[in-house]
Amino acid sequence: MTYQVMCSNCGHRSRKVPYGEDGADEIIQAGWNSFGDAFYCKKCVATWEKRNGKDRPLWGANHTRTRMLGRQVGELSREVERLNNRLKKCRDEMGHTTYDYMNWGNEW
Ligand SMILES: [Zn+2]
Q: How far from the centroid of its chain's Cα atoms is residue 102's Cα?
């Protein structure tokens, strides 16, 4: 699975990177930063101070990495929930006879 962020100012999208810390750091190294829940590309980071003033600095690499990993966990949690619902539906459709015969219980 891959992940990308979008600039809240200009709409530019980051390149797609693998989930996890290495991918997040790749985006940060490409110049991305964040403010609260919003991400900003290198170009808009360069003009941030002009647009927002000196007393509202961007929140930096640690925050940006944490927000990206948090979003990934959220996306994956929703994906797991969706797959669990599909799995339950598939099991229900098979019915109990086949299910009991296979005798693989919840591991199946
Ligand atoms: Zn931008």
A: 37
16 pLDDT band (50/70/90 cuts)? very high
What is the spatial distance between Cα 91 and Cα 99, in angstroms, rounded to a whole number? Answer: 8
Beta pairing class for 33-35 and 38-40 = antiparallel
Helix extents (H) in the chain: 21-29, 42-46, 48-52, 60-94, 96-102
Q: Which residues neighbour ligand 1 (ion) by CB within 5 Å?
A: 7, 9-10, 12, 41, 44
Tell how far the Cα of 15 is from the centroid of ligand 1, in angstroms.
13
Separation of CA 99 and ligand 1 centre (Å): 53
Question: 72-83: per-residue pLDDT in tens?
Answer: 999 999 999 999
CB 59: neighbour CB atoms within 10 A?
A: 14
Q: Which of 66, 38, 67 is nearest to 52 (CA)?
A: 38
The pTM for the full model equals 0.80
